[in-house]
Amino acid sequence: MAENPWTTASLDDMIVTTTHAVEGKPVQYYFGIVSGEVIVGANLFRDIFASIRDIVGGRAAAYEDVLGRAREDALSEMRAKAAKRGANAVIGVDIDYEVVGKGGSMLMVSASGTAVLI
């Protein structure tokens, strides 16, 4: 792939939105679909459920932390791929959670969207 002539924002400044546009900022160029995927092994979940003491007020804090980290890692990977193409935003973002592997032994978090220059 040829080097992109556009300069991009840092990953921290990149706009990531579930909407199809960013209000007041027209899309100048579409770079295509970008995605990020993270798979978390089941032993993490077994460990989490084995320690009931982590459950506070009906919520499993450790489980939520694992899901949150996996989601942020998937979004970070997606942003990095968009920046590599020259994008400064990702629009139409969708985040999915799937159980994969034999007997649902792993959890996959994927994030995808359209990399654009606005």
Task: Please describe what this structure looks like.
Strands 1-5-6-2 form a four-stranded mixed beta sheet. The protein has a domain at 15-41 and 72-117: 2-Layer Sandwich (Translation Initiation Factor IF3). The radius of gyration is 17 Å and the shape is elongated. The protein has 118 residues and is an alpha+beta fold. It is built from two helices and six strands, in the order E-E-H-E-E-H-E-E. The longest helix is centred in the middle third of the chain and has 25 residues, at 61-85.
Based on the model shown, name its key terms.
118 residues, alpha+beta, Translation Initiation Factor IF3, four-stranded mixed β-sheet, 2 helices, 6 strands, 36% strand
Instruction: Spell out the CATH superfamily of the domain at 15-41 and 72-117.
Output: Hypothetical protein apc22750. Chain B
Rounded to the nearest angstrom, the radius of gyration is 17 Å
Which structural class do you get from the secondary structure elements? alpha+beta
Biggest sheet statistics: 4 strands, mixed
Total beta strands? 6
Helix content: 25-40%
Ranges where pLDDT stays below 50 over 5 or more residues in a row are none
CATH class of the domain at 15-41 and 72-117: Alpha Beta
Fraction in beta strands? 35-45%
The CATH architecture category of the domain at 15-41 and 72-117 equals 2-Layer Sandwich
Strand order of the largest sheet: 1-5-6-2
N-to-C CA distance: 21 Å
- In DSSP terms (H or I, runs of 4 or more residues), the helix count works out at 2
| Helix and strand element order | EEHEEHEE
Q: Would you give the CATH topology of the domain at 15-41 and 72-117? A: Translation Initiation Factor IF3
Mean pLDDT figure: 82
Shape: elongated
